[in-house]
Amino acid sequence: MGEKAKLSRVDEDLAELARRHGVATRYQDADRRWVDVDADVVVAVLARLDVDAATPEAVGRALSAPPADEGPLVLRDDVVLDGPGTVELEHGGAVDLPAVLPPGYHRLAGRTVIVAPRTLPPVPAAWGWMLQLYAVRSAGSWGMGDYGDLAEFAARSAAELGAGVVLVNPVQAISPTFPVERSPYSPSSRRFANPLYLRIVDLPEFTRADGDTRDRVLALAPADDSALIDYDAVWRAKLAALELLWPFADRVEPTGDLLGYARFCALAREHGPDWRTWPTAQQDPETATPDHDRVLFHAWLHRACEAQLDAARRAARDAGMAVGIVHDLPVGVHPGGADTWAVRDAFAADVRVGAPPDAFTRLGQDWNLPPWRPDRLAEQDYEPFRAVLRGVLRHADGIRVDHVAGLWRLWWIPPGEPARRGTYVHYDSEAMLAVLALEAYRAGAVVVGEDLGTVEPEVTETLHRDGMLSSAVLWFMRDYDTPGHPLIPPGQWPVGAMASISTHDLPTVAGFLAAEHVRVRADLGLFEGDVQRELEAAGTERADLVALAEREGVDTDDLVTALHGVLARAPSSLLLTSPQDAVGDTRQPNLPGTVDEYPNWRIPLSVPLDRLLADDRVVRVARVLAARPDR
């Protein structure tokens, strides 16, 4: 369709067909300008939904085809469902209609009825941490942070500093192969946990082992003095230790989803991390033949992860955390990982999720993550999505949904196309949100949606409607409708938000104040324009922040502490900072737009855990955030 001023009849038919399947033929970009999607892109995306639109005749046939079966009926728990009929309740019993139904997944005349709470309970006001767990180093961990460090960090933060919440980076499962996937946002599975974070000496099998075996295990611990985290060295050492302890473990036959995941892991160890490259028979779960002992081994590893994650959660609760440990949910999974192997029909094969071009990424973004198929989710009553949420919430006090706008729409890039040649595909957001609300309600968990960037207002408004928190980041809290885009005073930030100064994808506080983010990008050649202009822009932003702090009556002698003082004046339910921000580290954890050019996800904290929480800089920041005025 491109730049055509008026659609022809065929184009109108294609647009109607696309609308029926939730495929956008035009969208608003970051500057609110309408962009038409090329017709061949629309046709290619429809093809990934099994809709043939390659010719006018094919479009006509697709338009005349009978509609798909209705998906689940979605209700809230304060809505009367009219009759006649009888609803079979999820946990037994039946209710004659009309009636108000309890939260749950029920059945009515062969159709699933999803009933979610109208709103989640209020989130307690608390301050806390955004923790990059891998970056923590301690005497007990092996070269990178682990679940034992998470337990200690949470408990001590609560007991010594009064913290009420810890948001931890995604700890979903990797493929147990080499090289190790470093990005926590590209897991093999979102339903299971990452054994890379296991604390070996906390395993009951270590206690049961004989002295010689324990000595051999301890001798495997990698050195903890490298400048960057070496994931391969850590996993190699832990894998060798786990093999030594395996004879002391109970062999428990896995069932259900865990069986499928363990089978994938066993096959990945033999054939590599991407099932699409395996021998043909092994690519299909129905014909795959993994070694049974290896299946039992990987099921054991996951149960060990669950036990240590549960222990961390209990430690946070026992120490009095108001909220507890919140886990991060990535937007997708590796295209050749465990989830796509087990439930591949729920994913759009060969499609990559990303983002359209904007002022920062002129060519768009390609995240190389396969999206859910909205039609298959509806056909399966959203069970694949339920399984993902349960996998996280099983050991969490809360969940942060990365790129929460993906519950409404995702940018699909069809096979063979660059990131800019994609389009949005829409999902049933009411159904997705109902499942999210119901699973969080059952788990007693808080929900945070990451709604940063170019996001429709409906996203944030609906999160607040459902008792979920949005995100507020100081760098972005500006009035973009006013000339000069002035910073919004923290007192005007939303109450229903998780507020912070920065994020893992942005400069640290000290790095921003020193314009380290400009220097690093300039050194890597990531600027198209004048570097001096970027430095001047960073200087202007710094001056704006200092002026805001002064208007708020915050002492600006120590700017790192001062910006936390600005954050403390926000009425938002949760106020979060990071250890990197508190201690003044200048390197940000992840630099978007880079892979190997920058040590993403490999930078350790400059202060080890045994000294971190008593560090004067951390104590100052904690006091500022703990002294937040009453909302």
UniProtKB/TrEMBL annotation:
Which residues are listed as membrane-spanning? none
* This enzyme's EC code(s): 2.4.1.25
UniProt record, GO biological process: carbohydrate metabolic process
Query: Does Coiled coil show up as a keyword for this record?
Result: no
Q: What broad class of enzyme is this?
A: transferase
The record's listing under Pfam families reads: Glyco_hydro_77
Q: Which GO terms describe its molecular function?
A: 4-alpha-glucanotransferase activity
- Show the catalytic activity: Transfers a segment of a (1->4)-alpha-D-glucan to a new position in an acceptor, which may be glucose or a (1->4)-alpha-D-glucan
Keyword Glycosyltransferase present in the record's keywords: the answer is yes
UniProtKB keywords: Carbohydrate metabolism, Glycosyltransferase, Transferase
For this chain, the family text in UniProt reads: Belongs to the disproportionating enzyme family.
Q: Which PANTHER family match?
A: 4-ALPHA-GLUCANOTRANSFERASE DPE1, CHLOROPLASTIC/AMYLOPLASTIC, 4-ALPHA-GLUCANOTRANSFERASE DPE1, CHLOROPLASTIC_AMYLOPLASTIC
- According to UniProt, the name of this protein is 4-alpha-glucanotransferase
Source organism (scientific name): Saccharothrix violaceirubra
High-level lineage: Bacteria, Bacillati, Actinomycetota, Actinomycetes, Pseudonocardiales
